[in-house]
Structures are given as structure tokens and as C-alpha cells.
Amino acid sequence: MLINISNHPYSNWSMEQKRAAEIFGKCVDLPFPQIDSSGDESYIKKLSCECVRSIETLAKQQEVVVHIMGEMTFTFLTILMLQQKGIKCIASTTERIVKETGFNKKETTFSFSRFREYLQP
Fold it and tell me: Digits of tens for pLDDT over the chain (121 positions)?
């Protein structure tokens, strides 16, 4: 099972990204939390602990991979906690295509490239 924790629900993924995700099995969205920018480190730790508990509940003794992208301090801590439990975490990579459309104007398109595992040192 693939658990998607990002601001981009599976239903909005491109066909290329959905095809690449098929190797992980069924995809379940776990909404990325709204993170208060004034929250301190203990607040981030509490959110990460809650997220990990939700993932463990969804996993129910089956193998899961977690696709996680978002606010860096939450993402970093959540990945560390998941890796300590032996849960593989991945990111989606994209090619950024920029087109100049006029004076001080650009159009940016992101094209899915692949999934990449968050590695441990």
C-alpha cells in the first residue's frame, strides 16, 4: 500500500505518476496537516507523532510505503520516525519546465519524473 501525505491528492496525479505508483499497490491519501507557522518544535513533534500513529493504523500489519512531501521540519521528523519503524518513505521528483511569456512573466510546468527514496545516512 502507498500512503500519500502531501497537498496533492492521488486523484489529481498525472497518469504517469499513477502508473509509477502501481508498484506499491493501492494508494490511500492521508491529508497533509495544516501546520501553524508559529508552532514550536514540540508542536511539530506532536503532529509527527499523530501522523505516524495514523499511518500505523492504516497499515494494519501490511507493508506500506509513504509518499511524503511538504513543510520541511514536519516532513523531516516524520520521515525519521517512520524509518525507525522500518517504513520506507519516498518523494516524487519532477522536471521543471519554464517558459518566458513576456516581461517579468514566466509559466512553469512540472512534469513527473520518478519516485525517489529518502535515504538514511
Answer: 999 999 999 999 999 999 999 999 999 999 999 999 999 999 999 999 999 999 999 998 899 999 999 999 999 999 999 999 999 999 999 998 888 888 888 888 888 999 999 999 8
Helix axes 72-84, 41-59, angle to 10 degrees: 50
The domain limits of the chain are 2-117
| CB-count burial class (<10 Å; 0-12, 13-18, 19+) for 118 | middle
Beta partners for 92? 115
Q: Which of 49, 56, 98 is nearest to 74 (CA)?
A: 49
Name the fold adopted by 2-117: Rossmann fold (3.40.50)
